[in-house]
Amino acid sequence: MKLGFFENFPASVHYAESFNSTLSSRSLQQRLIQALYDVNRQEFSFEQIAIPTVPEGRVIFEFGLAESENFNFIDKGELKKALDFLAQERVNSLDLFCAVRYYRGNGQKKTPLKFDYFILRTVFSKDLFEIQVFHERGPRYLSPEDVVAFIFLRLNCTSNRGVLRRLGQG
Asked: 66 with 1: CB under 8 angstroms?
């Protein structure tokens, strides 16, 4: 079993975007896992993530880290396991699962809607970071581009100065 690697990652992806990084690959990997742990099961208004496609919509992300043929939800135990692994091992990619839960309304009157399921591969090389996204199933209330933009913003908000810069931007 190899942590961070999904054996059945799709051959073609629906979206990919590359970024320049000011961090080492190892630091960026650790920061990525920590950022995803921090947002897991946190509720966001649709407007915080993307242009709303659901009126009064709420969004909850659930990220998991690959381990061979499965994904493990990034909870406190999985976070420690992943950070310990990344401190010891050098990896060029990390595969992730992202379930996006949608609700209409607030408080007690929340109505659950269909979920989106994405599989992501994050690729690390010197000064570069790429996110590849495969939309497995769901209504696509959020696009693969929206998921990448969310991760990009979460990683950049972990530092006083942005750790990622979109390629082609000054």
From this structure: no
Q: What tens digit of pLDDT does each residue of 108-125 get?
A: 788 999 999 999 999 999
CA–CA separation, 147 vs 136, rounded Å?
Answer: 13
Q: How many CB atoms lie within 10 A of CB 129?
A: 25
Residue 5 main-chain phi, psi, to 5 deg:
-125, 125
Q: Which tens digit of pLDDT belongs to each residue from 150-164? A: 999 999 887 777 788
**DSSP β-ladder status, 70-73 and 93-104:** unpaired
Is there a contact between 58 and 103 (Cβ–Cβ < 8 Å)? yes
Q: How far is CA 131 from CA 56, 121, 166, in A?
A: 29, 6, 11
Domain ranges within the chain, ordered by starting residue: 15-166
